[in-house]
Write a structure and sequence with these properties.
The longest helix is centred in the C-terminal third of the chain and has 16 residues. The relative contact order is 0.09. The strands form 5 sheets. Strands 1-2-7-8-9-10-11 form a 7-stranded mixed sheet. Strands 17, 18, 19, 20, 21, 22 and 23 form a 7-stranded mixed sheet that branches. It is elongated. The chain has 401 residues and is α/β, with parallel strands linked by helices. The protein contains 13 helices and 23 strands. Strand 17, helix 9 and strand 18 form a beta-alpha-beta unit. The protein is 34% helix and 24% strand. It binds flavin mononucleotide and fe (ii) ion (2 copies).
């Protein structure tokens, strides 16, 4: 059976892992790799639900051939045509020339744009259409912008299996484990799942909300996403996370401190703030250096926590560039509904706090900015202690609300 895993009666996972890829979308670090999931249904017809990235096509084809035995591949359902799932589509067509590809109109349009030669293989479907493969009947649900505009999900009416495309996926190679109950998801996977969702789909909260509303109307027994583990119990845990993330509601009351610093003085102020928070009883505190933490991690933490302190030097009359980059990313990903406190530093005209405040207020949505701020002239001294104390007290009060 090599790396194939049986998912349920008639259904097999035939995907693979890429642990050599450093950056997902050539942007987000994936130190634990990523899986590309593909599922093969063996019924009167043989049906593959999505394919994989070109990088792992050799393993994938081996898995598909192994499960098919001497049978042909009749159908490929493409829920999401992004190249990380469709990179192997032409290889499939070459090997299975009678293959029919079931997908949406937009998806076929995009396949043509990408020069995937699918002419003569198209079987176009719309939301609500059904297809019967023998014992199994499936229906299609449009899920636009749950990563891309062409995305659909496929629901197996016979078994209650939802092929959910990128939704409910995660970074991280599977390394043999497949189901959420074969791992400690909340300990080992949630951070990667959050980082995946917030950076890949985070911008499209309202679209995810409408997909969740559709999902609420069907009886789901299993969720098969395109990356990460398959879910076969504890759906409430996962749906609650998605609901919060897509409504931009924090998961936890806590203080996230993100600082930038060239010579270490703003860093020292950030560490002083963290110490004082703990000293006064607030223990849910996270501290990150904006320069040495990839912004994808900062975005994920921003989705998680309720209160965020931004601290950075003034830089050529502007915001310290790595901090500006993080703020821009927050805007790009539509982060909203958080409370911020600001610490600025400067040696001759400190104004990074005012500038960050203006950015949050003008460029982002529903951001609450606390009155208590700290303005440092190069390095903190005893003179800054009262402001530091008021900031800490205000944060502790605010996180109790
Ligand atoms: C390239 C550069 C530009 C700077 N621009 C400003 C500025 O416009 N206004 C200001 O008050 N300080 C400016 N500074 C000074 C720093 O903001 C200041 O020294 C700060 O205390 C550094 O904090 P740190 O020790 O956390 O790096 C600049 C420093 C550098 C290196
Ligand atoms: Fe995608
Ligand atoms: Fe994907």
């Amino acid at each position: 059976m090599y790396t194939v895993r049986k998912v349920a009666e008639d259904l097999y996972w035939v995907g693979g892992n890429d642990v050599r890829l450093a950056l997902f979308e050539n942007m987000h670090p994936i130190p634990r790799g990523v899986s590309y999931n593909s599922y093969l249904l063996i019924d009167e017809k043989t049906v593959l639900f999505d394919a994989v990235d070109w990088a792992i096509t050799q393993d994938f084809i081996r898995n598909v051939e192994m499960v098919l035995g001497d049978r042909e591949l009749d159908y490929l359902v493409v829920n999401h045509m992004e190249p990380d799932h469709c990179g192997s589509i032409e290889e499939l067509i070459l090997r299975y020339p009678k293959l029919k590809i079931i997908s949406s109109e937009k998806s076929f349009m995009l396949m043509h744009q990408f020069n995937y030669h699918v002419d003569g293989h198209e079987d176009q479907v719309e939301e609500g259409d059904t297809r019967n493969f023998g014992k199994h009947t499936v229906t299609f649900v449009a899920a636009p912008m749950v990563h891309w505009p062409e995305v659909m999900m496929t629901y197996d009416i016979t078994t209650g299996t939802l092929f959910s495309a990128d939704a409910f996926g995660s970074f991280g190679a599977l390394h043999g484990a497949l189901f959420n109950d074969e791992m400690n998801f909340d300990r080992d996977w949630i951070d990667d799942a959050r980082r995946y969702y917030t950076n890949i789909v985070g911008k499209y909260g309202p679209f995810v909300q409408s997909a969740l509303k559709k999902a609420a109307t069907i009886d789901i027994k299993m969720i098969c996403p395109l990356h990460g583990p398959v879910w076969r119990n504890d759906f409430g845990y996962l749906l609650d996370k998605y609901d919060k993330w897509s409504r931009y509601e924090p998961e936890e009351k806590g203080v996230l401190i993100i600082y930038g610093s060239m010579y270490g003085n703003t860093e020292y102020a950030a560490e002083s703030l963290a110490s004082l928070l703990h000293d006064k009883g607030m223990h849910n505190v996270r501290v990150y250096d904006v320069s040495s933490t990839d912004v994808s991690y900062l975005i994920a933490e921003t989705f998680k926590y309720s209160h965020i302190v931004l601290a950075c030097p003034t830089f050529n009359l502007g915001i310290y560039p790595p901090m500006k980059n993080y703020l821009n990313d927050m805007k790009a990903l539509n982060v909203q509904n958080r409370t911020f406190a600001l610490i600025e530093n400067g040696s001759w005209a400190p104004q990074s706090g005012t500038l960050m405040s203006e950015y949050l207020d003008e460029e982002l949505k529903m951001m609450n900015i606390m009155d208590e701020t700290l303005s440092i002239n190069s390095a903190i001294t005893d003179l800054d202690v009262p402001d530091l104390n008021s900031l800490v007290d205000a944060l502790i009060e605010a996180t109790k609300e």
